[in-house]
Design brief:
The chain is mainly alpha-helical. The protein contains 13 helices and 5 strands. Helix content is 54%, strand content 7%. Helix 10 crosses helix 12 (277-303). Bound molecules: iron/sulfur cluster.
Length: 339
């Protein structure tokens, strides 16, 4: 198939964002990233990709299920409302163009720029298995991912701004060396995004590996059972004991899911033992089930038609490739490799 280099909304500012393929997504992914993608897709020219090479930089020994994880995740993107007519969806490993740009950028990027990334040393000290060339080079691969689409913005949390800064430095150095009169690679801006960090069933950060997650596609029964068995303020041993939402893992979920009236009711009734914990959890269960209902419906349709999901990714990948190839032609030309 062929695809035009023009994306559906090319007059809009382009943003790029990726997600590692972790399989079916949970509510933490939705509130931490997907909700923001949904907002961006109607205002920007969005390129969203499955960062499967990035996953290999830290989990290179775990090959199992990677394909299923990739497509399960894309199903959740689509189920949440990511619209392939508005956004370009693709898989990183289907784009060898990223690897070529990574290689070319690597020639002029001082290794000290990568070694000084704040999290790099910490992570390698904690886990020697990460002392690989791939893990060191990961921010440069990320730079290639961004620069190959000439993205103007990259949505990031506060802890990720150093990666965007490296991308900007890499672009600046490339432009200075190879195209000083007409910069080829624009420096992207970090789009600091407002996201809610959802805590898990135990009050810690929600994550699949910690076993404290509610999946986006959990059934209503599973959601009810997970919430009803959540621990609460340890001071509330009996129904008549007053509690404090500040010490209860249920409260952060109310802060995301409940309106002002419900939150005021929880505060007052918990502190006066006016309600039991199951009463308190009821509106939360209902709010989560209501949020999930359209996702589950859309996901069922997609799971019944896997070819459709593959086709969506195929179209997005070819659309992305047309843009990536154009940038690579310019880059090769600037370096003197246009033969
Ligand atoms: Fe937690 Fe609600 Fe029980 Fe208070 S009433 S301890 S906030 S579950």
């Amino acid at each position: 198939m062929s695809a035009s280099a023009n994306t559906p909304s090319q007059t809009r500012e382009r943003v790029l964002s990726g997600m590692r393929p972790t399989g079916a997504l949970h509510l933490g992914h939705y509130h931490g990233a997907l909700k923001n993608w949904l907002r961006l897709q109607s205002t920007h020219d969005c390129f969203f990709f499955v960062a499967d090479w990035h996953a290999l930089t830290t989990h290179y020994q775990q090959r199992e299920d990677i394909e299923r994880n990739v497509y399960d995740m894309v199903v959740d993107w689509l189920a949440a409302g990511i619209d392939p007519e508005q956004a370009t969806l693709f898989i990183q490993s289907r784009m060898p163009e990223h690897a070529e740009l990574f290689t070319l950028l690597a020639m002029s990027t001082p290794s000290s720029w990568l070694e000084r990334i704040p999290s790099y040393k910490d992570q390698v000290e904690r886990n020697r298995e990460l002392a690989t060339y791939g893990f060191l080079g990961y921010p440069l691969l990320q730079a290639a991912d961004i620069l190959i689409y000439k993205a103007a913005g990259v949505p990031v949390g506060e802890d990720q701004t150093s990666h965007v800064e490296v991308t900007r430095e890499v672009a600046r150095r490339f432009n200075r060396i190879y195209s000083p009169d007409a910069p080829i690679l624009p420096e992207p801006q970090a789009l600091l995004t407002e996201t809610s960090r959802l805590t898990g069933l135990d009050g810690q950060k929600m994550s699949k590996s910690a076993g404290n997650a509610i999946a986006m596609r959990d059934t209503p029964e599973v959601v009810e059972s997970k919430i009803n068995t959540m621990p609460t303020d340890p001071q509330r041993v009996r129904r008549g004991d007053p509690g404090d939402p500040a010490h209860c893992p249920v409260w952060p979920l109310h802060q995301v899911y409940s309106d002002g009236d419900t939150r005021a009711w929880v505060q007052q009734a918990c502190k006066t033992a006016g309600i039991g914990c199951l009463d308190c959890k009821r509106p939360l269960i209902e709010a989560i089930q209501k949020e999930q209902a359209p996702w589950r419906e859309r996901a069922q349709e997609l799971l019944a038609d896997p070819k459709k999901v593959h086709w969506i990714v195929e179209v997005g990948t070819e659309r992305a490739r047309a843009v990536a190839r154009k940038t690579l032609r310019e880059v090769r030309g600037a370096i003197g490799l246009a033969y």
